[in-house]
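Input (structure):
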């Protein structure tokens, strides 16, 4: 008995005891349905020996008529069998769904910061249906075999007891071989289901972490992991198929050999005084009743039985209870940024942004060619940029012209869905414009030759990217050549990360992304971006989970950091701290300082009025250069 079976037996007994009445009704209908089994061989033998072979045609027809009537009665009883089966199977499925949902909600409440379990979709849909169908098939087949075997054995005994000496040995040998395959098949079935869950979890993580990993250039390694999981599932399926072939051998031994032995020994049986009707009746028991029922039972136990045990164990005890290795949700390997290629969203597959293993920052890397950058930081130039999410879709950005000078601090504001994140994705190279040109430091943002333009920029989205490992490894992730201890401390202090560093136990303390709050993840991502050598920083609501004081400290740190800064803001104080503010209003884009926009933009006045004033006063905005010469915006947006 396997460990999983031992765990399930007490629950199975309780489940069946609560449904004793249903089981008794099912047994009664099954007994009535299988009455034709006994008459199938016995009636045929009597029809031959006492009827046709004896010259009494009427007697033979009468026996055949009785046999046919039993078949009709059995067919009518099948309706009651399936009604009882439904009363037994549907409560099982409902119970399993309740358990899966309850456990998932409990885990979500207990660990609100942890990413949602993508494998629950497989459990609620695929695995619960596997359990339901497998249980229904097993009940249907098991009760059919029990009553069919009882009728066939009783019929063989009533005809001639010596027939059992020919039929039972090969049947027993086939059954023993078949039983020997159950345990390894259960293990292979468990491995297949585990591979299926791993693949489901990975693809769920891909959808959530696509933008982060593309921004970090991890698409090739992530695609390789996804393909590896696909190959793991295919390998598990092939191993399961090999044991299914052994099961087929057992079926042949138990199913075909008894018929062959009966035919070979027929002359000897006739010499022993058995009549032709008895031999033909025994053959009918084998071919029409016993062996088909045995084949069905062995097929059901070999496939549905092992699936049912494995799936029930996983659904009721959780995926961690199985003996096989379980997927480590934080064990994906992430490449060092130094070895990445230019992002290509058309061919990118991304891993879970919370479930990756840190790269080794001490590993020597070949220096990558750098794009020449002005001392103050790279300039950003958009010329007649148009972008739409589909050939027939309304453009989100239309003929947008924008220049961000080297070292400038620009804040982008506008209603939700107006195109702010689309703009940062275009500047980061994650999206390609349908028309127009985007340049950073004078080079196309998606250049496919020459120095890698992705080394110039770092994008921090709203969903911060944190992987398992140490805090130091997380902060050094975007530093191809490493960083000094003083630089680490300076960046940590600048963005306000020091209290979290002390709470976690220092820079070299292990980091579990699942126990961090959204704000703590954002602080780590901000510290990583501040420490990185990238001269262009794009913050897409990267401080939305911080309080106003922490947000002001982080934005001041980036404003004082050498380089160019573009921020998508959600608070008025963020806009007032910028050199310039770009307002996307759905008709056109307007640029200027806070005071200028209060006069020139009705939308900005509305936004400034609807934003809640923060307790902390905004610092006096530095004098901004004239923007009339640097931006001409002709915009249409899809809100």
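Output (sequence):
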């Amino acid at each position: 008995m396997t460990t999983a079976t031992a765990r399930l037996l007490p629950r199975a007994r309780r489940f069946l005891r609560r449904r004793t009445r249903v089981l008794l009704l099912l047994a009664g209908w099954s007994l009535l349905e299988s009455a034709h089994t006994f008459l199938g061989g016995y009636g045929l033998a009597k029809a031959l020996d006492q009827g046709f072979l004896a010259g009494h045609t009427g007697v033979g027809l009468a026996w055949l008529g009785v046999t046919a009537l039993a078949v009709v009665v059995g067919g009518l009883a099948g309706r009651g069998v399936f009604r009882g089966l439904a009363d037994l199977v549907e409560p099982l499925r409902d119970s399993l769904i309740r358990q899966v949902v309850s456990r998932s909600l409990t885990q979500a409440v207990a660990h609100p910061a942890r990413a949602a379990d993508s494998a629950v979709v497989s459990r609620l849909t695929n695995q619960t249906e596997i359990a339901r169908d497998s249980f229904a098939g097993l009940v249907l087949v098991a009760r059919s075999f029990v009553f069919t075997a009882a009728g066939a054995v009783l019929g063989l005994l009533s005809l001639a007891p010596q027939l059992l000496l020919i039929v039972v040995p090969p049947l027993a040998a086939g059954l023993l071989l078949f039983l020997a395959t159950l345990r390894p098949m259960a293990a292979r079935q468990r491995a297949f289901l585990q591979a299926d869950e791993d693949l489901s979890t990975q693809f769920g993580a891909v959808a959530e972490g696509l933008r982060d990993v593309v921004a970090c250039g991890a698409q090739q390694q992530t695609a390789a992991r996804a393909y590896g999981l696909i190959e793991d599932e295919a390998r598990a399926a092939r191993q399961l198929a090999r044991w299914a072939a052994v099961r087929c051998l057992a079926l042949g031994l138990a199913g075909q050999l008894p018929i062959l032995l009966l035919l070979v020994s027929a002359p000897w049986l006739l010499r022993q005084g058995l009549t032709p009707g008895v031999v033909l009746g025994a053959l009918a028991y084998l071919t029409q009743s016993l062996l088909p029922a045995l084949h069905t039972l062995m097929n059901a136990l070999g496939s549905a039985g092992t699936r049912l045990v494995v799936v029930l164990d996983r659904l009721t005890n959780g995926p961690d209870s199985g003996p096989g290795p379980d997927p480590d949700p934080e064990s994906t390997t992430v490449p060092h940024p130094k070895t990445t290629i230019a992002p290509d969203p058309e061919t990118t597959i991304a891993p879970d942004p919370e479930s990756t293993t840190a790269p080794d920052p001490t590993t020597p890397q070949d220096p990558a060619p750098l794009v020449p950058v002005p001392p103050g930081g790279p300039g950003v130039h958009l010329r007649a940029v148009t972008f739409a999410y589909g050939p027939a879709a309304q453009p989100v950005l239309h003929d947008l012209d924008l220049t961000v000078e080297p070292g400038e601090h620009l804040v982008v504001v506008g209603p939700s869905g107006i195109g702010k994140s689309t703009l940062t994705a275009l500047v980061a190279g994650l999206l390609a414009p349908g028309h127009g040109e985007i340049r950073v430091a004078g080079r196309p943002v998606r250049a496919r030759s020459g120095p890698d333009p992705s080394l110039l920029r770092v994008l921090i989205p709203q969903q911060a990217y944190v992987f398992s490992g140490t805090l130091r490894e997380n902060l050094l992730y975007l530093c191809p050549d490493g960083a000094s201890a003083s630089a680490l401390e300076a960046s940590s202090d600048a963005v306000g990360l020091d209290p979290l560093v002390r709470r976690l136990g220092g820079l070299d303390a292990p980091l579990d992304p699942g126990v961090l709050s959204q704000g703590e993840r954002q602080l780590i991502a901000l510290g990583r971006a501040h420490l990185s050598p990238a001269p262009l920083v794009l913050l897409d609501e990267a401080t939305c989970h911080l309080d106003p004081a922490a947000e002001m400290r982080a934005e001041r740190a980036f404003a004082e950091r050498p380089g160019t800064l573009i921020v998508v803001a959600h608070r008025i104080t963020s806009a007032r701290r910028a050199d310039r503010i770009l307002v996307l209003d759905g008709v056109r884009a307007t640029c200027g300082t806070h005071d200028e926009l209060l006069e020139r933009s009705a939308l900005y006045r509305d936004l400034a009025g609807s934003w809640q004033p923060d307790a902390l006063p905004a610092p006096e905005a530095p004098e901004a250069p004239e923007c009339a010469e640097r931006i001409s915006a002709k915009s249409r947006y899809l809100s």
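Notes: Residues 380-608 form a domain with the Rossmann fold fold (CATH 3.40.50.300). The chain has three domains: 1-109+118-160+299-319, 161-273, 380-608.
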